[in-house]
Amino acid sequence: MQIVTGTIVEGRVVVQGVALPEGTRVTVLARGADEGFTLSAEDEDELLEALAEIDRGESVSLEQLLATLPHRT
User: Residue 73: inside a domain, yes or no?
Assistant: First the structure.
């Protein structure tokens, strides 16, 4: 697992300096036009572990998550 930065070019994500095999599944987190964020090393490690948990199937579906939330009236 790795974190890379890319740019949208003609509707496609282009990542420079990293060779990803054809068919690689990626997750895209888009920044707003005028907002950004920085992850500390600890936060990056936590994010990578969360993604690894998802890869291992240690997650719940949206429906399961919504079922655990209190209902709004």
Answer: no
Tell me the per-residue pLDDT of 3-45, one tens digit each, with 9 for 90 and over: 677 888 888 888 888 888 888 877 777 767 676 677 888 888 8
- How many structural domains compose the chain? 1
Written as six digits, the tokens of 33 are 């036009």
What lies within 8 Å, CB to CB, of 31 at 6+ separation is 37
> Higher pLDDT residue, 34 or 52?
52
Structural domain boundaries, residue 51: 6-68
Question: In the beta sheet, which residues pair with residue 14?
Answer: 7
Classify 12 as helix, strand or coil: strand
